[in-house]
Amino acid sequence: MRLLPAALWPRFLKRRLPTSLWGRSLLIIVLPVLVMQVAVTWAFFDMHWQTVTARLSDGLAGDIAWAAESYADDPTPRNLEVIAERAERSMSLSIALQEGETLPKETRRGALGVVDRTLEEALKNRIDQPVWFDTTRYPAYVDVRVQQPQGVLRIIAPRERAVATQAHIFVLWLLIATVLLMGVAILFIRNQVRAIERLAEAAEAFGRGEPRERYKPSGAREVRAAARAFMDMRDRIQRHIDQRTALLASVSHDLRTPLTRLRLELALAPPFKRADAMRGDMDEMEHMIDEYLAFARGEAGETPQEVSITDLLAVAAEDARRAGAEVEVVAPPALSAILRPLAFKRALSNLAGNAASHGEHLRLTARPLPSGGFEIAVEDDGPGIPDEMHEEAFRPFSRLDESRNQNRKGVGLGLAIARDVARGHGGDITLERSDLGGLRAVIRMPG
């Protein structure tokens, strides 16, 4: 396997590290604990367990060497009986002579090779005769055999005489302590992260215009301070919105009253040459006032509810047909979402009206997205907009070039209002080149 260059390792690790605060906080706690556990376990086995095992194996090898040498000095049944009796009483060793036998040819070694290597080295250092041992046949015993002229001297020793058998207790307690500490740390981190998540949810809901009650700040002192600062900011913004709404209502009344008087005076006046032109100017003025107020108001006070996307598309299509365009609607019948219906209807009407004013054929499509949201596309066969001017088209009061200015009605707020509504719902609007030859406005909403 080819290794990555050193310069690419930071980028490689960054892509594989957790991206959430919860994941990173957990990694900060878990990784040091695991490293500490591995280091402590390694130090225990290297400095304690192996040392103790080596000393136990050396002591067992010495006892076996004593038994083998004592029997070699007097290889009689009587002496063997005395040696076996003393070994059993003082050393917990079971000794027997297998007359005429030889050492087994095969060697059996355990999975933990350090035990076999330590015992083998101790036996070779202590015993001059050929020796064979097995640590796997009997779980609680070690089988050691020494070759003698009369046969094989077989010694069965308890396993704890050769190996420090209580090492797993230390590791078990270390694991239990680690799990308890990590559990407490995870609970603590989860509570801190949850407080930040609640703050993020409140900020996102406020950005979408959803009414939310004030919640009680929790978590660390800094998180509580951030939550209180956000709620104070939210209250100030809401007061500003309420004041603006009241001001707009007053402006609407103040502007429409003289406009209504002008209409009445024009209707009662005798016919004259410029009457039709004046009526057209007043109609345009009323439409401009409506657009200004709609752009400033933003429909922010409307309560979200579940609405049918297909029905909204049908209404927008009917408005475009009344403007003289041919409209094709492609949408699944069961597509619905939680929206502010009047605001979203206005956004679709603005997009469809903008398309109908610049093209003769329109296509409105809607489809669900794999992420759980949905996408709506409004296309026309008009002159389109150059790619470098797509963002410019969303600026308030933008009129672009003459190719898109065939519609003299309006002040350039249609796309700005539509994008404001989409972003108020957590989505966005982008412009693309349409297959029909004109502009394609795409609304993408999250799930």
Structure overview:
The protein is of the alpha+beta class. 55% of the residues lie in helices and 15% in strands. It has ten helices and eleven strands. The strands form three sheets. Strands 6-8-9-11-10 form a five-stranded mixed β-sheet, with helices on one face. Helix 5 runs parallel beside helix 6.
Quick recap:
By secondary structure, the chain is an alpha+beta fold.
How are the secondary structure elements laid out?
Elements: H1 9-16, H2 21-73, H3 77-91, E1 94-99, H4 113-126, E2 131-134, E3 141-148, E4 151-158, H5 167-207, H6 221-268, H7 275-297, E5 305-308, H8 309-322, E6 326-330, E7 336-339, H9 341-358, E8 361-368, E9 374-380, H10 414-424, E10 428-433, E11 439-445
Parallel strand pairs: 6-8
Antiparallel strand pairs: 1-4, 2-3, 3-4, 5-7, 8-9, 9-11, 10-11
Helix pairs in contact: 2-3, 2-4, 2-5, 5-6, 6-7, 8-9, 9-10
